[in-house]
Write a structure and sequence with these properties.
- There is one protein chain.
- Residues 368-374 and 602-613 have low confidence and may be disordered.
- Helix 1 (24-33) runs antiparallel to helix 3 (57-67), helix 7 packs across helix 8 and helix 16 packs antiparallel against helix 18.
- This protein has four domains: 2-73, no CATH class; 114-325, Tandem AAA-ATPase domain (Rossmann fold); 337-341 and 432-625, P-loop containing nucleotide triphosphate hydrolases (Rossmann fold, 3-Layer(aba) Sandwich); 344-428, no CATH class.
- It is 44% helix and 14% strand.
Length: 627
C-alpha cells in the first residue's frame, strides 16, 4: 500500500509513504514523476510540492494501473481532490454551455445584498461571466472598475452563503482604493484591516484583510490561518506581480495559499506584459493542477512567449476564463502622443559613445560568459542614465530605487577619456531632457495646468525637484511611505498626492512607475504625462499611462503623453521593445484598441516583429548596429 496525504509543513506538501508490500517499481515511478517537486523525505517517504503532485495526477493514476498498486488518499487530500474535481467540471461546463444573457437580474440581487454602487452595463456583464466560473480573472484595462466588480462578486458570494470573508493581496498603492471602494460599495461598511506584517493584529471579526505580496511571504502562516477561519474569497490585485510563480518568493507564497481559498480571482490590466509565459502563474493560481490542461505547451517557454503562433494559441486557450473591458468600451476620449527624439548635447553624446564603446566588447561575449559576469543588467542601467543625465553615472543608484535597478557608481580609473568627460559634464551642460521638462512645466503652469513626470531613477526625481522648485513639486517614490504604517509627522505618498490634486501652487508631480504606477487615480486633475526615461518593463509603462487616462474623463478632455528620447541611444531600443510587447499583449487579450491607446501612433495592423530572445538580446543587437 502507498498512502498520500496533504500536510501543512512550512508550506503545504503531499506526503507519500511506502508501506509493506508496496511495489518497488511503482515507488520508483512515483519518485521519477514527482522529481521536480520533491522537497524532502526518506527511503520510504516522499514529500512533494502540492502543485507538482496535482499536475501529475494522470501519471499517478497510470502508475496505479500499470503496477496494480493499491493507493490510499488521506482525508485532507481527498477533500482537496474533490474540490478541484468540482472546479474542473464547472470550468469545463462553461466551455460547452450556451451563455445566458449577461447581466440579467444581478442588479436587483446586488441591491438586496447591500451593494450600494450602481454598476455600468459592461461591469454587470463581466460580473455575470465571472460568477459562472468557479474562479475567474478580470483583465479589464486599468480604470475600468475592477475593484468595484470584485467587491460586487464578494457581496453576492457572501449573500449566497459561498464565502464569508475577503483577502486582498495588492500593491500598497492600491490599499486606499480598496478601503474607499469597500466603504462606498458595501452596506453595512465591512470590518477591514491592513496587514502590516507579523505584528499586525488580525481580529476574529475581520471581514476584509488587505495585504501586499511581500507581507504574505513574510507572514505566511498567519495569513493561512486567516483563510482557514472561514470560507474565504482571495483576490490578487495587479496579479502580474506573481509572474515568476514558484520561482519567486512572492509567487510561491501566493500559489501555496491558493488551495485554502474557497474562491479565487485575479485582477490586472496588464496580465502578460512580456508575453504568453506571464499567464502561467495566474492560471496556476486560479486552477491548481489544471493549468497544463488549459494552456498550450509552448506557453511555458519564456523564450517563445512572443512567438505569433504561441500568442494566438494561448489567447484562444484562455479566452473563456477571463473578462476584459477594453478602453474602447469605456468611452474615453482618445490620447495624443508626442515623441520628441532629439540629439544630445556634445558632451553628453561623447559620454554616451565612450560608455557604449567601453562595454561593446563585453556585450559580444557568449551567453554563458555574459551571465557568469552578471554585469549586463548593470550596464543597461548605466546606458539609461547616460541617455538622460550622465551625472548620475558617478553616484550610482539611490537608496530608494527599486531593487532591480540598484547599481553602484560607474567605476572610473581616473585616466580614461570617459572619466574626464564625466568630471566636466555638469560644468558645461544641462541635459536636454531636463531643460525640456522645465519648459513643459513652466508653460503648463502659465495655463493653470498640472503635469505628471515619470522617471525610473529616484535621483532624477530629486534633481528635478530642485530644478522645478518654483512649481512646488510633489514627489513620490519608494522612499516616500504610504500613510499606513508611516511614522508620525513623516511625509507620505497620500499627502503628496493630495497636495498635487488640491494645491493650485503645486503644478507638477515627479514619480516613478514602481511606486505609483498602480492603484492611483489622477485623471481629474492632470491630463499631461511626460516620460523622462523608460525601461523594458511594459507593465510599468501601460499602468503609468492609466493614472491619467481612466473611466470618468469628459469627452472634451485631451490626455497627452510626451516621450523624450535621446537620439542614437538605448531610448530608441526601449521604444521598439515596448512597442513589440504592447502589440503582443493586444493580441493575447484580443484587444487591438490597446495598441492605439498605448503607442504613439496607431499600428493595429502591424505584424509582430521576429521574436528576440529577451530584452538583453535586443540591446546587444542595437549596440551591434551602432558600430
Amino acid at each position: 500500500m502507498i498512502s498520500a496525504e496533504l500536510e501543512r509543513r512550512e508550506r503545504p506538501v503531499v506526503v507519500l509513504r511506502r508501506g509493506p508490500g508496496a511495489s518497488a517499481g511503482a515507488w520508483a515511478r512515483l519518485q521519477a514523476v514527482l522529481a521536480r517537486g520533491i522537497v524532502g523525505g526518506a527511503h520510504d517517504v516522499i514529500e512533494a510540492r502540492v502543485d507538482v503532485f496535482l499536475a501529475e495526477l494522470e501519471a499517478v493514476a497510470a502508475m496505479r494501473r500499470k503496477f496494480r498498486q493499491p493507493f490510499d488518499f488521506g482525508e485532507a487530500l481527498t477533500r482537496q481532490l474533490r474540490t478541484l474535481t468540482e472546479d474542473r467540471r464547472t470550468r469545463e461546463s462553461v466551455l460547452t454551455d450556451t451563455p445566458e444573457a449577461e447581466g440579467g437580474d444581478l442588479a436587483e440581487e446586488l441591491s438586496a445584498a447591500g451593494f450600494r454602487r450602481s454598476l455600468r452595463l459592461f461591469q454587470l456583464e463581466n460580473l455575470a461571466r465571472l460568477l459562472r466560473l468557479p474562479h475567474g480573472a478580470d483583465f479589464s484595462v486599468p480604470g475600468a472598475g475592477k475593484t468595484t466588480v470584485a467587491l460586487a462578486g464578494f457581496a453576492l458570494g457572501r449573500a449566497r452563503g459561498q464565502v464569508e470573508q475577503l483577502l486582498v493581496i495588492a500593491p500598497i498603492a492600491a490599499f486606499q482604493a480598496w478601503k474607499e471602494d469597500s466603504a462606498a460599495c458595501l452596506n453595512p461598511v465591512p470590518t477591514l484591516a491592513v496587514h502590516g506584517g507579523p505584528r499586525t493584529l488580525i481580529r476574529d471579526d475581520l471581514e476584509i484583510l488587505l495585504t501586499n505580496y511581500n507581507r504574505v511571504a513574510a507572514d505566511y502562516d498567519r495569513i493561512r490561518e486567516y483563510i482557514d477561519r472561514r470560507p474565504t474569497q482571495m483576490v490578487l490585485d495587479e496579479a502580474h506581480r506573481i509572474k515568476k510563480g514558484e520561482h519567486g518568493v512572492h509567487g510561491r507564497a501566493v500559489l501555496d495559499l491558493a488551495y485554502a481559498a474557497r474562491r479565487r480571482d485575479v485582477l490586472t490590466g496588464t496580465p502578460a506584459p512580456q508575453g504568453a509565459y506571464d499567464l502561467v502563474a495566474p492560471v496556476r493560481f486560479l486552477y491548481p493542477g489544471q493549468d497544463h490542461k488549459i494552456l498550450p505547451r509552448r506557453a511555458y517557454s519564456e523564450r517563445d512567449g512572443r512567438d505569433p503562433d504561441v500568442v494566438a494559441e494561448t489567447s484562444q486557450a484562455v479566452s473563456r476564463y477571463f473578462v476584459r473591458t477594453p478602453k474602447s468600451r469605456l468611452g474615453l476620449p482618445p490620447t495624443k502622443f508626442t515623441v520628441e527624439l532629439q540629439p544630445m548635447g556634445q558632451v553628453q553624446k561623447a559620454v554616451y559613445e565612450a560608455l557604449e564603446g567601453t562595454y561593446r566588447g563585453e556585450f559580444t561575449l557568449g551567453t554563458k560568459d555574459r551571465r557568469r559576469f552578471g554585469r549586463l543588467g548593470r550596464i543597461m542601467m548605466y546606458l539609461l542614465e547616460a541617455a538622460t543625465n550622465p551625472s548620475l553615472l558617478v553616484v550610482g543608484s539611490d537608496e530608494h530605487d527599486q531593487a532591480e535597478f540598484t547599481h553602484p557608481p560607474f567605476e572610473l580609473r581616473g585616466d580614461e577619456p570617459l572619466s574626464l568627460l564625466l568630471q566636466q559634464y555638469a560644468e558645461y551642460e544641462v541635459p536636454w531632457k531636463y531643460r525640456r521638462i522645465q519648459q513643459i512645466v513652466r508653460d503648463a503652469a502659465a495655463r493653470n495646468e498640472k503635469v505628471l513626470v515619470w522617471s525610473t531613477f529616484v535621483r532624477n526625481l530629486k534633481l528635478l525637484g530642485d530644478l522645478l522648485i518654483d512649481f512646488q513639486p510633489a514627489i513620490v517614490h519608494g522612499g516616500v511611505p504610504p500613510a499606513d504604517g508611516a511614522a508620525p509627522g513623516a511625509l507620505t505618498r497620500d499627502a503628496e498626492f493630495d497636495r498635487f490634486r488640491n494645491d493650485p501652487d503645486c503644478t507638477v508631480l515627479l514619480a516613478n512607475p514602481a511606486a505609483c504606477g498602480e492603484g492611483v487615480s489622477l485623471h481629474h486633475w492632470c491630463h499631461h504625462a511626460v516620460y523622462l526615461d523608460r525601461t523594458f518593463n511594459a507593465g510599468h509603462y501601460l499602468q503609468s499611462q492609466d493614472r491619467i487616462h481612466r473611466l470618468g474623463l469628459s469627452d472634451d478632455v485631451e490626455t497627452r503623453f510626451t516621450l523624450l528620447l535621446s537620439q542614437g541611444t538605448i531610448d530608441e531600443t526601449v521604444e521598439g521593445r515596448l512597442r513589440e510587447k504592447v502589440v503582443v499583449l493586444s493580441q493575447l487579450m484580443n484587444d487591438p484598441g490597446l495598441v492605439a491607446a498605448a503607442l504613439p501612433e496607431p499600428d493595429v495592423n502591424e505584424a509582430v516583429s521576429p521574436v528576440l530572445g529577451d530584452d538583453e538580446t535586443a540591446l546587444i543587437s542595437a549596440l551591434a548596429r551602432r558600430r
